[in-house]
Amino acid sequence: MKDSVNILGIETSCDETAAAIVRNGSQVLSSVVSSQIALHQKYGGVVPEIASRAHIEKIYPIVEEALAQSGIDKKEIDAVAIANQPGLTVALIVGLTAAKTLAMALRKPLIAINHIHAHLQSAMMDVQDLQLPAVALVVSGGHSSLYQCENILDLHLLGSTIDDAAGEAFDKVASILNLSYPGGPSIEKAAKDGNPNAIHFPRTMLGKDSLDFSFSGLKTAVLYHCCGQDMKGESRVAQMSPKEIADIAASFQAAVIDVLVRKTQMAADKFKAKTILLGGGVAANTLLRMELEEMASSTNRTLLVAPKKYCTDNAVMVASLAYQKFKANMFADMSLEAKAGCDD
Ligand code: KG4
Ligand code: ZN
After folding, report:
1. 8 A C-beta contact, residue 132 and residue 274
2. Rounded distance from Cα 185 to ligand 1 centre (Å)
């Protein structure tokens, strides 16, 4: 194999149009992310048709920019990688079509990437010897999943959300509290001035040994807290003091993190994990990082966590994981399809 492998990664699974060029899996030559937050903000969530149209407008300029920033010529690209699952089909398909077109035009192989697995790759981009066994937590707007990890190409799903994902719960609770979208960063900011013990919101653990997650009951508890149990009353949020909002945000955040840390510890104990991996948009949350770090170090484990800039959607994670597939000769062909769900 060549000494130097340059992979162009493309990401359009939700509301970020991103392209990156990564050399040998960890040397980031360029990373460009165009966020559509401003377009979706007034709807309080991502509108698929708006996302798709924005990807169409942005994808080629973003790829051009990634090429220009990388300082390499497009002839030096060795493969084109695309996150083709999971995500919004109408959004995925834009990046997939662009990736196929570029692969054909450049006469380079195409590599299919699972977006969730790529989030985990962000946590181990610079890791040479992963201490096994390892368990991995991915928490994003669409997923809350626990994996047993043999290596990044060999992940076994242990549990996932049965209703709302962790990030989705942050987004919905932010909307209940009239905080801006995306909800994660605004809840985190509001929670800084709040008391996490002010309100005891439920921690849904499901069965005793379950490694699945459920956050919709927690979201409903916040809604009842703000609107009354019978939901007949008007929301009190507009009349609440900033301190009251901060207490709700902090108590909600504590409940989500409590469940995430407890379930991750259960999985780590079950599989005698030496390493815990953390990735996905919610992994940008400082309290979650701190509490998982505390749990890991008190149980003699190493926590590997994605750098904050690569927690939310980006294409570096796509190009980086693609290098592992490139080395393993795992290429896709032009029949590759976009999939809303996840194969594993
Ligand atoms: O991974 P990501 O960019 O997109 C998906 O794959 O879904 O994750 C986006 C999610 C959003 O729900 C957002 O509210 C959440 O990650 N998020 C956070 C934080 N930053 C982003 N949640 C909690 N705390 C944060 N600091
Ligand atoms: Zn994501």
Report:
1. yes
2. 8
> What one-character DSSP code corresponds to residue 42?
G
pLDDT tens-digit profile of 291-333? 999 999 999 999 999 999 999 999 999 999 999 999 999 999 9
Q: Give dist(CA 157, CA 175) in Å, integer.
A: 30
The domain over range 130-308 is classified in CATH as 3.30.420.40: yes
Q: Are 206 and 162 in contact (CB under 8 A)?
A: yes
Taking the centre of ligand 1 as the mean of its atom positions, its distance from the CA of residue 143, in whole angstroms, is: 10
Average pLDDT of span 158-182: 95
Q: What is the DSSP letter of 332?
A: B
Q: Homologous superfamily of 6-121+311-327 in CATH?
A: ATPase, nucleotide binding domain (3.30.420.40)
pTM beyond 0.70, yes or no: yes
Strand duo 134-139 + 27-35: pairing: unpaired
What one-character-per-residue DSSP string does 128-192 give?
SS--SSEEEEEE-SS-EEEEEEEETTEEEEEEEBSS--HHHHHHHHHHHTTPPSSHHHHHHHHHT
- Rounded Cα distance between 37 and 54, Å, is 11
Residues with CB under 6 A from ligand 1: 14, 140-142, 167-168, 170-171, 182-185, 188, 280-282, 284-285, 312-313
Can you count the helices (H) and strands (E) in the chain? 10, 10
